[in-house]
Amino acid sequence: MSAGVNAGDTAWMLVATALVLLMTPALGLFYAGLVRSKNTLNTFMMCVAALAIATITWAAIGYSLAFSEGNGFIGGFDHAFLQGVDFTPREGTAIPGLLFFAFQATFCIITTALVSGAVVERMRFGPFLVFSAVWSIVVYAPLAHWAWGGGWLQAQGTLDFAGGVPVEMASGFSALAAALVVGARRDYGRQAFLPHNAVYVLLGAGLLWFGWFGFNGGSGFSVGNASILAFVNTLLTPACALATWFILDIVRARHVTAIGAATAIIVGCVAITPAAGFISPGWAMALGVVAAVPSYAVIMWRPRTRVDETLDVLGAHGLAGFVGILFIGLVAGSSWNGVADGAIYGDWGQLGEQAVAAVATPAYAFGVTFVLLKLLGLVTPLRATAYQEAIGLDIVAHGEEAYATGEGAILVAHDGAVEVEREAEREKALV
Hints:
It is globular and about 60 Å long. A two-stranded antiparallel ribbon has the order 1-2. The relative contact order is 0.14. Helix 3 runs parallel beside helix 6, helix 6 runs antiparallel to helix 11 and helix 7 packs parallel to helix 9. By secondary structure, it is an all-alpha fold. 65% of the residues lie in helices and 3% in strands. The chain contains 16 helices and two strands. The protein has two domains: 373 residues, Orthogonal Bundle (Ammonium transporter fold), CATH 1.10.3430; 45 residues, no CATH class.
Protein backbone atom coordinates (compact mmCIF):
# COMPACT_ATOMS: atom_id res chain seq x y z
CA MET A 1 0.00 0.00 0.00
CA SER A 2 1.33 3.42 -0.98
CA ALA A 3 2.67 5.78 1.66
CA GLY A 4 -0.03 8.08 2.99
CA VAL A 5 -2.88 5.67 2.26
CA ASN A 6 -5.01 4.77 5.29
CA ALA A 7 -6.16 1.13 5.33
CA GLY A 8 -9.34 1.82 7.31
CA ASP A 9 -10.41 4.70 5.06
CA THR A 10 -9.65 2.64 1.98
CA ALA A 11 -11.65 -0.35 3.22
CA TRP A 12 -14.68 1.85 3.96
CA MET A 13 -14.46 3.55 0.56
CA LEU A 14 -14.32 0.19 -1.24
CA VAL A 15 -17.58 -0.73 0.51
CA ALA A 16 -19.12 2.70 -0.16
CA THR A 17 -18.29 2.47 -3.86
CA ALA A 18 -20.00 -0.91 -4.12
CA LEU A 19 -23.04 0.47 -2.27
CA VAL A 20 -23.39 3.38 -4.68
CA LEU A 21 -23.00 1.11 -7.70
CA LEU A 22 -25.89 -0.99 -6.35
CA MET A 23 -28.07 2.12 -6.48
CA THR A 24 -28.25 2.09 -10.29
CA PRO A 25 -29.95 -1.33 -10.65
CA ALA A 26 -32.03 -0.36 -7.59
CA LEU A 27 -33.11 2.75 -9.49
CA GLY A 28 -33.96 0.52 -12.45
CA LEU A 29 -36.24 -1.54 -10.21
CA PHE A 30 -37.82 1.61 -8.75
CA TYR A 31 -38.43 3.11 -12.19
CA ALA A 32 -39.60 -0.16 -13.77
CA GLY A 33 -42.36 -0.57 -11.21
CA LEU A 34 -43.67 2.91 -11.94
CA VAL A 35 -44.30 2.37 -15.66
CA ARG A 36 -46.75 0.19 -17.56
CA SER A 37 -45.84 -3.47 -17.86
CA LYS A 38 -45.13 -3.24 -21.60
CA ASN A 39 -42.24 -0.84 -20.88
CA THR A 40 -40.75 -2.60 -17.85
CA LEU A 41 -37.59 -3.94 -19.48
CA ASN A 42 -36.90 -0.84 -21.54
CA THR A 43 -37.15 1.37 -18.47
CA PHE A 44 -34.81 -0.89 -16.51
CA MET A 45 -32.42 -1.10 -19.48
CA MET A 46 -32.08 2.68 -19.63
CA CYS A 47 -30.57 2.47 -16.15
CA VAL A 48 -28.46 -0.56 -17.02
CA ALA A 49 -27.13 1.30 -20.07
CA ALA A 50 -25.74 4.01 -17.83
CA LEU A 51 -23.53 1.40 -16.17
CA ALA A 52 -21.68 1.03 -19.45
CA ILE A 53 -22.00 4.44 -21.08
CA ALA A 54 -21.24 6.68 -18.10
CA THR A 55 -18.42 4.45 -16.86
CA ILE A 56 -16.65 4.66 -20.22
CA THR A 57 -17.13 8.41 -20.69
CA TRP A 58 -16.07 9.05 -17.09
CA ALA A 59 -12.85 7.06 -17.50
CA ALA A 60 -12.10 8.54 -20.91
CA ILE A 61 -12.65 12.22 -20.23
CA GLY A 62 -15.33 13.00 -17.63
CA TYR A 63 -13.18 12.42 -14.57
CA SER A 64 -10.42 14.59 -16.00
CA LEU A 65 -12.82 17.42 -16.84
CA ALA A 66 -14.24 17.28 -13.32
CA PHE A 67 -11.14 16.79 -11.19
CA SER A 68 -8.00 17.87 -13.02
CA GLU A 69 -6.63 21.38 -12.91
CA GLY A 70 -8.34 23.78 -15.26
CA ASN A 71 -10.34 26.95 -14.78
CA GLY A 72 -13.40 27.89 -12.76
CA PHE A 73 -15.76 26.35 -15.29
CA ILE A 74 -14.08 23.11 -16.38
CA GLY A 75 -11.02 20.97 -15.69
CA GLY A 76 -8.37 19.97 -18.19
CA PHE A 77 -7.17 16.77 -19.82
CA ASP A 78 -4.41 15.81 -17.37
CA HIS A 79 -6.29 12.68 -16.29
CA ALA A 80 -7.86 11.72 -19.63
CA PHE A 81 -8.00 7.93 -19.93
CA LEU A 82 -6.84 7.84 -16.29
CA GLN A 83 -3.38 9.25 -16.91
CA GLY A 84 -1.66 9.80 -13.57
CA VAL A 85 -4.46 8.10 -11.62
CA ASP A 86 -2.82 5.37 -9.56
CA PHE A 87 -2.27 4.16 -6.00
CA THR A 88 -1.00 7.47 -4.68
CA PRO A 89 -3.43 9.17 -2.28
CA ARG A 90 -5.90 11.56 -3.83
CA GLU A 91 -5.16 15.09 -2.60
CA GLY A 92 -7.11 15.85 0.56
CA THR A 93 -7.78 12.17 1.29
CA ALA A 94 -5.95 9.09 2.52
CA ILE A 95 -7.36 6.79 -0.19
CA PRO A 96 -5.76 5.82 -3.53
CA GLY A 97 -6.49 7.99 -6.53
CA LEU A 98 -7.88 4.97 -8.39
CA LEU A 99 -10.43 4.38 -5.66
CA PHE A 100 -11.43 8.05 -5.64
CA PHE A 101 -11.98 7.75 -9.40
CA ALA A 102 -14.14 4.64 -8.98
CA PHE A 103 -16.26 6.19 -6.23
CA GLN A 104 -16.89 9.30 -8.30
CA ALA A 105 -17.68 7.13 -11.34
CA THR A 106 -20.64 5.61 -9.52
CA PHE A 107 -22.05 9.12 -9.00
CA CYS A 108 -21.83 9.91 -12.70
CA ILE A 109 -23.48 6.57 -13.53
CA ILE A 110 -26.55 6.98 -11.36
CA THR A 111 -27.02 10.65 -12.26
CA THR A 112 -27.07 9.77 -15.95
CA ALA A 113 -29.60 7.01 -15.23
CA LEU A 114 -31.80 9.38 -13.21
CA VAL A 115 -32.50 11.59 -16.22
CA SER A 116 -34.09 8.67 -18.07
CA GLY A 117 -37.06 8.91 -15.72
CA ALA A 118 -38.30 11.95 -17.63
CA VAL A 119 -38.56 10.22 -21.02
CA VAL A 120 -39.33 6.56 -20.39
CA GLU A 121 -42.16 4.92 -22.37
CA ARG A 122 -41.51 6.97 -25.51
CA MET A 123 -37.83 7.84 -26.12
CA ARG A 124 -35.94 5.53 -28.49
CA PHE A 125 -33.18 3.50 -26.90
CA GLY A 126 -30.45 4.34 -29.44
CA PRO A 127 -30.77 8.13 -29.18
CA PHE A 128 -30.91 7.78 -25.39
CA LEU A 129 -27.53 6.03 -25.42
CA VAL A 130 -26.02 8.88 -27.44
CA PHE A 131 -27.65 11.47 -25.19
CA SER A 132 -26.33 9.71 -22.08
CA ALA A 133 -22.77 9.72 -23.34
CA VAL A 134 -22.75 13.40 -24.28
CA TRP A 135 -24.76 14.53 -21.24
CA SER A 136 -22.33 12.88 -18.83
CA ILE A 137 -19.53 14.94 -20.39
CA VAL A 138 -21.13 18.34 -21.03
CA VAL A 139 -23.50 18.57 -18.04
CA TYR A 140 -22.38 16.27 -15.24
CA ALA A 141 -18.60 16.74 -15.50
CA PRO A 142 -18.64 20.57 -15.48
CA LEU A 143 -21.06 20.68 -12.55
CA ALA A 144 -18.91 18.21 -10.60
CA HIS A 145 -15.96 20.50 -11.29
CA TRP A 146 -17.92 23.52 -10.09
CA ALA A 147 -18.82 21.90 -6.78
CA TRP A 148 -15.89 19.57 -5.99
CA GLY A 149 -13.06 19.92 -8.48
CA GLY A 150 -11.87 23.43 -7.69
CA GLY A 151 -14.48 25.19 -9.80
CA TRP A 152 -16.07 28.54 -9.18
CA LEU A 153 -18.79 27.36 -6.77
CA GLN A 154 -16.28 25.62 -4.55
CA ALA A 155 -13.96 28.63 -4.76
CA GLN A 156 -16.69 31.03 -3.60
CA GLY A 157 -17.43 28.82 -0.59
CA THR A 158 -20.53 26.86 -1.68
CA LEU A 159 -20.96 23.73 0.43
CA ASP A 160 -22.16 20.51 -1.23
CA PHE A 161 -21.30 17.36 0.69
CA ALA A 162 -22.49 14.60 -1.65
CA GLY A 163 -24.09 15.98 -4.79
CA GLY A 164 -26.84 18.56 -4.50
CA VAL A 165 -25.31 20.37 -7.47
CA PRO A 166 -24.02 17.75 -9.95
CA VAL A 167 -26.39 14.92 -9.00
CA GLU A 168 -29.74 16.08 -7.64
CA MET A 169 -30.42 19.50 -9.14
CA ALA A 170 -28.60 18.54 -12.34
CA SER A 171 -30.74 15.44 -12.91
CA GLY A 172 -34.00 17.11 -11.88
CA PHE A 173 -33.76 20.16 -14.11
CA SER A 174 -32.23 18.19 -16.97
CA ALA A 175 -35.23 15.89 -16.70
CA LEU A 176 -37.57 18.84 -17.10
CA ALA A 177 -35.75 19.95 -20.25
CA ALA A 178 -35.80 16.41 -21.63
CA ALA A 179 -39.53 16.05 -21.03
CA LEU A 180 -40.23 19.31 -22.84
CA VAL A 181 -38.10 18.43 -25.87
CA VAL A 182 -39.19 14.80 -26.28
CA GLY A 183 -42.83 15.61 -25.62
CA ALA A 184 -45.66 13.90 -23.79
CA ARG A 185 -46.65 10.26 -24.11
CA ARG A 186 -49.47 9.42 -26.44
CA ASP A 187 -52.83 9.89 -24.68
CA TYR A 188 -51.17 11.76 -21.80
CA GLY A 189 -53.91 13.66 -19.98
CA ARG A 190 -56.63 11.46 -21.51
CA GLN A 191 -55.63 8.10 -20.07
CA ALA A 192 -54.42 7.11 -16.62
CA PHE A 193 -50.86 5.78 -16.68
CA LEU A 194 -50.70 3.73 -13.50
CA PRO A 195 -47.65 2.04 -11.95
CA HIS A 196 -47.82 -1.65 -12.78
CA ASN A 197 -45.94 -3.02 -9.74
CA ALA A 198 -45.88 -1.13 -6.44
CA VAL A 199 -43.79 -3.87 -4.82
CA TYR A 200 -40.96 -3.20 -7.31
CA VAL A 201 -41.18 0.48 -6.44
CA LEU A 202 -40.96 -0.13 -2.70
CA LEU A 203 -38.13 -2.63 -3.06
CA GLY A 204 -36.22 -0.27 -5.35
CA ALA A 205 -36.68 2.60 -2.88
CA GLY A 206 -35.46 0.44 -0.01
CA LEU A 207 -32.36 -0.62 -1.92
CA LEU A 208 -31.71 2.99 -2.91
CA TRP A 209 -31.87 4.06 0.74
CA PHE A 210 -29.45 1.25 1.60
CA GLY A 211 -27.05 2.39 -1.11
CA TRP A 212 -27.39 6.01 -0.01
CA PHE A 213 -25.47 5.22 3.18
CA GLY A 214 -22.47 4.70 0.90
CA PHE A 215 -23.40 7.67 -1.27
CA ASN A 216 -23.45 10.13 1.62
CA GLY A 217 -21.32 8.32 4.17
CA GLY A 218 -18.61 7.71 1.60
CA SER A 219 -18.46 11.37 0.65
CA GLY A 220 -16.43 12.03 3.79
CA PHE A 221 -13.69 9.84 2.22
CA SER A 222 -12.72 8.49 5.63
CA VAL A 223 -14.01 6.78 8.74
CA GLY A 224 -13.96 10.10 10.56
CA ASN A 225 -16.61 12.37 12.01
CA ALA A 226 -17.87 13.73 8.68
CA SER A 227 -18.72 10.27 7.37
CA ILE A 228 -20.33 9.24 10.65
CA LEU A 229 -22.48 12.39 10.72
CA ALA A 230 -23.49 11.89 7.09
CA PHE A 231 -24.32 8.23 7.74
CA VAL A 232 -26.59 9.03 10.70
CA ASN A 233 -28.27 11.94 8.91
CA THR A 234 -29.01 9.61 5.98
CA LEU A 235 -31.04 7.51 8.40
CA LEU A 236 -32.89 10.42 9.97
CA THR A 237 -33.94 12.68 7.09
CA PRO A 238 -35.68 10.04 4.94
CA ALA A 239 -37.49 8.67 7.99
CA CYS A 240 -38.88 12.13 8.79
CA ALA A 241 -39.77 12.75 5.14
CA LEU A 242 -41.61 9.42 5.09
CA ALA A 243 -43.62 10.25 8.21
CA THR A 244 -44.48 13.67 6.83
CA TRP A 245 -45.61 12.11 3.53
CA PHE A 246 -47.91 9.79 5.49
CA ILE A 247 -49.59 12.81 7.06
CA LEU A 248 -49.89 14.64 3.74
CA ASP A 249 -51.42 11.57 2.10
CA ILE A 250 -53.94 11.14 4.91
CA VAL A 251 -54.95 14.80 4.83
CA ARG A 252 -55.27 14.81 1.05
CA ALA A 253 -56.78 11.40 0.29
CA ARG A 254 -57.44 9.69 3.67
CA HIS A 255 -55.10 6.82 2.91
CA VAL A 256 -51.35 6.24 2.74
CA THR A 257 -50.12 5.10 -0.66
CA ALA A 258 -47.22 2.71 -1.28
CA ILE A 259 -46.00 4.78 -4.25
CA GLY A 260 -46.08 7.87 -2.06
CA ALA A 261 -44.10 6.11 0.66
CA ALA A 262 -41.42 5.03 -1.80
CA THR A 263 -41.25 8.54 -3.24
CA ALA A 264 -40.93 10.05 0.24
CA ILE A 265 -37.90 7.89 0.96
CA ILE A 266 -36.22 9.17 -2.19
CA VAL A 267 -37.11 12.79 -1.40
CA GLY A 268 -35.60 12.49 2.08
CA CYS A 269 -32.42 10.86 0.77
CA VAL A 270 -32.07 13.54 -1.90
CA ALA A 271 -32.65 16.44 0.49
CA ILE A 272 -29.94 15.31 2.90
CA THR A 273 -27.42 14.56 0.15
CA PRO A 274 -25.86 18.05 -0.08
CA ALA A 275 -26.23 18.72 3.64
CA ALA A 276 -25.32 15.33 5.12
CA GLY A 277 -21.95 16.27 6.62
CA PHE A 278 -22.75 19.90 7.41
CA ILE A 279 -25.84 19.94 9.64
CA SER A 280 -26.68 18.43 13.01
CA PRO A 281 -28.90 15.35 13.40
CA GLY A 282 -31.66 17.52 14.81
CA TRP A 283 -31.66 19.77 11.78
CA ALA A 284 -31.45 16.70 9.54
CA MET A 285 -34.77 15.56 11.00
CA ALA A 286 -36.25 19.00 10.38
CA LEU A 287 -35.01 18.91 6.79
CA GLY A 288 -37.00 15.72 6.17
CA VAL A 289 -40.19 17.54 7.16
CA VAL A 290 -39.36 20.72 5.26
CA ALA A 291 -38.33 19.00 2.02
CA ALA A 292 -41.34 16.70 1.87
CA VAL A 293 -43.91 19.49 1.61
CA PRO A 294 -42.84 21.26 -1.62
CA SER A 295 -41.92 17.98 -3.31
CA TYR A 296 -45.31 16.53 -2.45
CA ALA A 297 -47.06 19.62 -3.77
CA VAL A 298 -45.18 19.62 -7.07
CA ILE A 299 -45.61 15.88 -7.64
CA MET A 300 -49.36 16.15 -7.01
CA TRP A 301 -49.67 19.21 -9.25
CA ARG A 302 -47.49 18.14 -12.19
CA PRO A 303 -49.96 15.61 -13.76
CA ARG A 304 -52.46 18.45 -14.15
CA THR A 305 -50.08 20.22 -16.50
CA ARG A 306 -49.05 19.36 -20.05
CA VAL A 307 -45.51 18.55 -18.91
CA ASP A 308 -45.18 14.77 -19.02
CA GLU A 309 -42.07 14.44 -16.85
CA THR A 310 -42.91 10.79 -16.44
CA LEU A 311 -41.41 9.73 -13.11
CA ASP A 312 -41.19 13.13 -11.39
CA VAL A 313 -37.43 13.46 -11.36
CA LEU A 314 -37.88 17.22 -11.02
CA GLY A 315 -40.09 16.97 -7.93
CA ALA A 316 -38.20 14.17 -6.20
CA HIS A 317 -34.64 15.15 -7.10
CA GLY A 318 -34.43 18.67 -8.51
CA LEU A 319 -36.66 20.34 -5.95
CA ALA A 320 -35.52 18.30 -2.94
CA GLY A 321 -31.88 18.95 -3.90
CA PHE A 322 -32.69 22.67 -4.20
CA VAL A 323 -34.17 22.66 -0.68
CA GLY A 324 -31.18 20.76 0.69
CA ILE A 325 -28.66 23.18 -0.81
CA LEU A 326 -30.45 26.19 0.67
CA PHE A 327 -30.95 24.47 4.04
CA ILE A 328 -27.17 24.31 4.44
CA GLY A 329 -27.03 28.09 4.21
CA LEU A 330 -29.61 28.37 6.95
CA VAL A 331 -28.55 25.80 9.55
CA ALA A 332 -25.00 24.57 8.88
CA GLY A 333 -23.15 24.40 12.19
CA SER A 334 -19.39 24.67 12.54
CA SER A 335 -19.61 22.81 15.84
CA TRP A 336 -20.66 19.81 13.78
CA ASN A 337 -18.85 20.30 10.47
CA GLY A 338 -15.80 22.31 11.52
CA VAL A 339 -16.17 24.34 8.32
CA ALA A 340 -18.92 26.95 8.33
CA ASP A 341 -22.03 28.28 10.05
CA GLY A 342 -25.34 29.08 8.44
CA ALA A 343 -27.57 32.11 8.83
CA ILE A 344 -29.15 30.88 12.07
CA TYR A 345 -25.70 30.79 13.63
CA GLY A 346 -24.72 34.21 12.35
CA ASP A 347 -23.26 33.76 8.85
CA TRP A 348 -25.75 35.09 6.33
CA GLY A 349 -23.05 35.06 3.67
CA GLN A 350 -23.20 31.26 3.53
CA LEU A 351 -26.87 31.43 2.59
CA GLY A 352 -26.00 33.75 -0.28
CA GLU A 353 -23.33 31.37 -1.54
CA GLN A 354 -25.77 28.47 -1.41
CA ALA A 355 -28.41 30.54 -3.22
CA VAL A 356 -26.01 31.23 -6.10
CA ALA A 357 -25.58 27.47 -6.58
CA ALA A 358 -29.34 26.97 -6.35
CA VAL A 359 -29.84 29.37 -9.27
CA ALA A 360 -26.82 28.64 -11.47
CA THR A 361 -27.07 24.84 -11.42
CA PRO A 362 -30.69 24.53 -12.62
CA ALA A 363 -30.08 27.17 -15.29
CA TYR A 364 -27.01 25.38 -16.66
CA ALA A 365 -28.46 21.86 -16.47
CA PHE A 366 -31.78 22.85 -18.05
CA GLY A 367 -30.24 25.01 -20.78
CA VAL A 368 -27.51 22.63 -21.91
CA THR A 369 -29.81 19.59 -21.84
CA PHE A 370 -32.46 21.41 -23.85
CA VAL A 371 -29.96 22.42 -26.54
CA LEU A 372 -28.30 19.00 -26.56
CA LEU A 373 -31.57 17.17 -27.22
CA LYS A 374 -32.69 19.69 -29.82
CA LEU A 375 -29.42 19.14 -31.72
CA LEU A 376 -29.69 15.37 -31.38
CA GLY A 377 -33.24 15.56 -32.67
CA LEU A 378 -31.96 17.15 -35.88
CA VAL A 379 -29.85 14.06 -36.53
CA THR A 380 -32.25 11.28 -35.53
CA PRO A 381 -35.83 10.97 -34.26
CA LEU A 382 -35.84 11.04 -30.47
CA ARG A 383 -39.07 9.23 -29.83
CA ALA A 384 -40.76 6.04 -30.90
CA THR A 385 -43.58 6.06 -33.43
CA ALA A 386 -47.19 5.96 -32.26
CA TYR A 387 -47.35 2.30 -33.29
CA GLN A 388 -44.21 1.42 -31.33
CA GLU A 389 -45.37 3.35 -28.30
CA ALA A 390 -48.69 1.50 -28.40
CA ILE A 391 -46.96 -1.88 -28.58
CA GLY A 392 -44.53 -1.01 -25.81
CA LEU A 393 -40.80 -0.44 -25.99
CA ASP A 394 -39.85 -3.77 -24.47
CA ILE A 395 -40.67 -5.60 -27.70
CA VAL A 396 -39.60 -2.75 -29.98
CA ALA A 397 -36.20 -2.03 -28.44
CA HIS A 398 -35.21 -5.36 -26.94
CA GLY A 399 -37.31 -8.09 -28.55
CA GLU A 400 -38.29 -9.34 -25.10
CA GLU A 401 -41.15 -9.05 -22.62
CA ALA A 402 -40.81 -8.64 -18.87
CA TYR A 403 -43.81 -10.91 -18.36
CA ALA A 404 -43.81 -13.47 -21.17
CA THR A 405 -47.23 -15.08 -21.66
CA GLY A 406 -45.87 -18.12 -23.46
CA GLU A 407 -48.53 -17.62 -26.10
CA GLY A 408 -46.61 -15.37 -28.47
CA ALA A 409 -48.88 -12.33 -28.19
CA ILE A 410 -49.18 -10.34 -31.42
CA LEU A 411 -49.93 -6.66 -30.99
CA VAL A 412 -51.54 -4.80 -33.86
CA ALA A 413 -52.46 -1.11 -33.99
CA HIS A 414 -55.63 0.01 -35.80
CA ASP A 415 -56.37 3.73 -35.91
CA GLY A 416 -54.56 4.26 -32.64
CA ALA A 417 -56.36 1.47 -30.79
CA VAL A 418 -54.34 -1.62 -29.87
CA GLU A 419 -55.91 -5.01 -30.32
CA VAL A 420 -54.34 -8.16 -28.95
CA GLU A 421 -54.47 -11.30 -31.03
CA ARG A 422 -53.03 -14.41 -29.49
CA GLU A 423 -51.66 -17.08 -31.82
CA ALA A 424 -52.05 -20.74 -30.95
CA GLU A 425 -49.10 -22.61 -29.59
CA ARG A 426 -46.78 -23.63 -32.40
CA GLU A 427 -47.01 -27.30 -31.51
CA LYS A 428 -50.78 -27.27 -31.89
CA ALA A 429 -50.55 -25.39 -35.17
CA LEU A 430 -48.31 -28.10 -36.57
CA VAL A 431 -50.67 -30.91 -35.66
